[in-house]
Amino acid sequence: MKPKFLILIGALLFSTISQAQIFENKKSALLNVLLKQQSDWNNGNIKSFMNGYWKSDSLQFVGRKGITKGWQNTLDMYLKSYPDTATMGKLHFDILDIDLLSKNSAIVLGKWLLIREKSKGDLSGHFSAILKKINGHWVIVIDHTS
């Protein structure tokens, strides 16, 4: 009886450790999407920054001007709002929480900061982003930025 019990305990412990490792791997993959966006933004490349978003007409961006639907419309909004690197500034994310909703969806909460030259002024706010794993890649499907 004792060996079977030890095997059961060992299996449960291994399963718990495996689940924790899976969570950490997913968390790392989610963070990589945002860090890549931050890097692309800071290199002045909005089009590459947009690779973090779902390239779909169903993408939703919620900002101070309302809801923008679709990947292309979101890109156009960014290009209009940030026409040059001085206006773009340098982006910094502070990730506050990552919650896995399922094996293929998560919500990320964070702060953002744009450091810009004095004449433009810095900008900051918070965001919540819902990411889904689509075709093997984590992408933002809803971005609510304030």
Notes on the structure:
With 146 residues, this protein is α+β, with helices and mostly antiparallel strands. The chain has one domain: Nuclear Transport Factor 2, Chain: A (Roll). It is 41% helix and 36% strand. The chain has helices at residues 2-42, 46-49, 71-81, 85-88; strands at 60-63, 66-69, 90-102, 105-115, 123-134, 137-145. It has a 6-stranded mixed sheet, covered by helices on one side. It is elongated and about 75 Å long. 15% of the residues are buried.
Features of this protein?
146 residues; alpha+beta; Nuclear Transport Factor 2, Chain: A; six-stranded mixed β-sheet; 6 strands; 41% helix; elongated
Total strand segments = 6
Helix content: 40-55%
Radius of gyration: 19 Å
What is the CA-CA span between the terminal residues? 59 Å
Please write the CATH class name.
Alpha Beta
CATH topology: Nuclear Transport Factor 2, Chain: A
Main beta-sheet strand count, sense and barrel state = 6 strands, mixed
Report the portion of residues in β strands: 35-45%
Structural class: alpha+beta
